[in-house]
Design brief:
- By secondary structure, the chain is α/β, with parallel strands linked by helices.
- It has seven helices and six strands.
- A four-stranded parallel sheet has the order 2-1-3-4, covered by helices on one side. Strands 5-6 form a two-stranded antiparallel sheet.
- It is elongated.
């Protein structure tokens, strides 16, 4: 218990060094917390608020120590882009269906149908017509509830 209090006191006195590729609200907030900004390219940092370009260009070619943290992770767009997230969930569903069965795979049916426009426009229109609760009254060009 005593060592836990010592560690907590040591962490409270430690200055966190950060880098930020953008000068915006994020860097203002980090500075206001008392964190120390590192401007040099080769400077030591604990936290890096990096833009996506930095991740693509530098991340795979640099060494990071255990304590270093980033605001992104490799292939983050696989989760943050709706179409790629849906693609990965579909892949997971198929894998579960093959390995465990359809009943277990049906638990993955919680996400909506997604479309990547304009490539999926015609599929989108077909799906809209099938599931829409509205229809277009072509004479007056207004939506009317069925």
């Amino acid at each position: 218990m005593h060592s836990s209090k010592n560690r907590q006191a040591k962490n409270e006195n430690r200055v966190i060094r950060f880098k930020c590729t953008l000068q915006n609200t994020i860097s203002d907030v980090l500075r206001s917390r008392g964190w120390q900004e590192v401007k040099e390219e080769s400077g030591e940092w604990d936290f890096y608020w990096a833009d996506v370009g930095w991740m693509r260009e530098v991340f795979d070619h640099c060494y990071m120590e255990e304590h270093m943290r980033l605001n992104h992770f490799r292939n983050h767009y696989e989760l943050t882009r709706k179409n790629l997230s849906a693609k990965n969930l579909k892949r997971l569903r198929k894998q579960i269906e093959r390995e465990i069965g359809k009943i277990e795979a049906s638990k993955c049916d919680f996400f909506p149908t997604t479309f990547e426009l304009p490539a999926d426009y015609h599929i989108f229109v077909e799906e809209f017509k099938k599931k829409s609760k509205f229809h277009m009254d072509h004479e007056t060009y207004r939506q009317v509830t069925r």
